[in-house]
Amino acid sequence: MLYSLARPVLFSLDPECAHELSIRALSHLGGWLPLRAGASGETVEVMGLRFPNRVGLAAGLDKNGEAIDALARFGFGHIEVGTVTPRAQPGNPRPRMFRLPAQRAIINRMGFNNLGADNLVSQLKASRFKGIVGVSIGKNFDTPLEQATDDYLACLDTVYGHASYVAANISSPNTRNLRQLQGESELDLLLSRLAQRREALAQQHGRYVPIAIKIAPDVEDDQLAVICDALRRHRMDGVIATNTTLARDAVQGLRHAEEAGGLSGAPLRERATDIVRALARRLGGELPIIGVGGIMNAGDAHERLLAGAALVQVYTGFIYGGPAFVTDCIDATRHFERDAPETIV
Predict the structure, then answer these.
(1) Any idea where the domains of the chain sit in the sequence?
(2) Of the candidates 270, 278, 269, 274, which has an alpha carbon nearest to the alpha carbon of residue 227?
(3) Which of 34, 93, 103, 84 is CA-nearest to residue 250?
(4) Strands 78-84 and 44-46
(5) Is the dihedral angle over the CA atoms 204, 206, 208, 214 positive or is it negative?
(6) What is the mean predicted confidence (pLDDT) over 72-80?
(7) Is 166 helix (H, G, I), strand (E, B) or coil?
(8) pLDDT tens readout for residues 184-200
């Protein structure tokens, strides 16, 4: 009810201003928000972690971990914060976020704007939420691609002791050349060094923190085969599919459709589902898939699980649908759980 009243006001504002206002409000509300049902007693084990339900919040909404306690009140089974970089950076010039309401979509070219990994850790320490929090990590915009691995390792070192899992974002279209890290040689080097550092950190901290890799929807079949082989070879713990798309077929002619950046929301649903289905076929259950992109209603969430995802994440659907949308998705995935194995490895 409250969101139905607030949404027209928020949608009358510039999208990024509305986003900043919402995060600021949530950061102050914290535990004052009513607790919406999230867990049903039907938990699921993924990446060695026990999730209270299959619906999580995708990275990007709470980049700096400022509103974790408030967001947890909406019932999410997990919250992914970031993407965070080793050093704070402002991101790309404004305006850099655009709504396409006719297609229930958003285009953004934020560029990993964040306050840095150390700041995020301070927020994680201050949070009272005891559930699963993933941390999405990336490289600074001015770090040469050949040194990108160093940025990912620096972030991993910083957040490891405070994250439930870590997501390496190598698929944002808004940091120049970042998607080249999905290439065969670049990916092999990155995953090899992440795997080595993960083992060293597990020994140092006395706990194992899973690493998932977030990939783009704009990959061809041969590139997807390379990615799957690398994920297996380096024993990654999961794959997140997908990030935003550069495709504009579904929004041609609409206002803002030609803006540079990644497109999220309803137009991404079909492609993101296809990628999850292809990953499930190629990986054969060897590691879990977290499905994200274009999930705009409960049916979309259920569809993504049927395609082969173990968990789903939402962002744009949450912006358009509000807290009730999260509850609906959780309810839909509970029905799936009655017919699906409890543990997906």
Answers:
(1) 2-344
(2) 278
(3) 103
(4) unpaired
(5) negative
(6) 96
(7) strand
(8) 999 999 999 999 999 99
Beta-bridge mates of residue 97: 108
Determine the angle formed by the axes of helices 323-337 and 298-307, rounding to 10 degrees: 40
Could you tell me which of 85, 146, 79 has the C-alpha nearest to residue 110? 85
DSSP per residue over 65-92, as a string? SSSHHHHHTTT-SEEEEEEE-SS-B--S
HSE of 29, CA atoms in CB hemisphere, 13 A: 17
173 pLDDT exceeds 90? yes
Helix (H) / strand (E) containing 343: strand 343-344
Phi then psi for residue 240, to 5 deg, are: -105, 120
The mean per-residue pLDDT over the stretch 61-70 comes to: 97
Contact residues for 216 (Cβ-Cβ < 8 A; gap 6+):
171, 173, 179, 182, 242, 243, 245
Distance CA 34, CA 301 (A): 24
Mean pLDDT of 191-215: 98
Q: Which CATH architecture has domain 2-344?
A: Alpha-Beta Barrel (3.20)
Kindly report which listed range (11-15, 31-35, 65-69) carries the lowest average pLDDT score: 31-35
Distances in Å between the Cα of 302 and the Cα atoms of 77, 132, 204 are: 15, 21, 39
Catalytic amino acids? 172
**Buried b vs exposed e over 163-187: b needs ≥16 C-beta within 10 Å?**
bbbbbbbbbbbbbeebbebbbeebb
